[in-house]
Amino acid sequence: MNHPTSGQPELLVLRPLMPAQMEQLEQAFQLHRYDLAEDPEALLHEVGGRIRGVVTSGAPGFQAAMLPRLPALEIVSTSSVGTDSIAVAACKEKGIHVTNTPDVLNDDVADLAIGLVLNALRRLGDGHEYVRSGQWSQRGMMPLGRSLKGKRMGIVGLGRIGLEIAKRAEAMKMDILYTSRNRKDVPYPYYATPVELAANCDILMLACPGGADTRHLINAQVLDALHPEAWVINISRGSVVDEEALINALQRKSIGGAGLDVFENEPHIDTRFQQLDNVILFPHHASGTTETRSAMSQLVVDNLKAHFRGEPLLTPL
User: Which domains are delineated in the chain?
Assistant: First the structure.
């Protein structure tokens, strides 16, 4: 923990940024490391009244219960695009600004989404293990995969990331369908509900926001509408999927499988996922590149500096 010096706003760090951006924060602000504190409650008791800004991310987020402990708080800056774990409404009621990091992670997340599709249909992980385990030399050619060309990708949520996924899928000669809260000005067929979309696609790609409005949007009814060789790919939020219904579908093999970057109770995921051979698991790491995480961290720094200089925020909610 840094001790206060005159003129520097004090920030509470719930989760640190990349090292280069943490250095920038240390030069411009007084930082109090809640993430490293042996006794977080004692830290809040000591410095809570002086905290003017919070640095966080999608996990751990920022809970409304912390607001009474931070009476001088002016801004919460999260290094994530999703804000379902941030008490945005409660902050706005108190006039506290909230910023996130949209756009800078679109490409990497979209790339990973397509990577999961490739892994699902072309069986990249299976092929790796087939060679590593010696099965290639013992058993000959591994079982065939499926082509991406001509497959119908149904995207749930055609926002910034959804559109980037669509562009990549089109380049691989896939057909794009979508559902969204509102019809978009795009050349893709629109379906009013996820159930209708699921009934018409081979890949159900989840790219919608998390939060209460989309909790368990993908339920048993949606999964039942998929054909037996269809895959579910989730790079949105774990809360979007009813995991009990998904596990049931995977166990019954009523769908082809699932590629999952996010989970309801991550990182402590349902252990049944680990026992299934028709699921691809990834540790909520779609934006996990040095370049993108650095860009996200820099946007947090730039928003905080802009706020305390009295300048317009770059990415306010």
Answer: 10-104+291-309 (3.40.50.720), 106-281 (3.40.50.720)
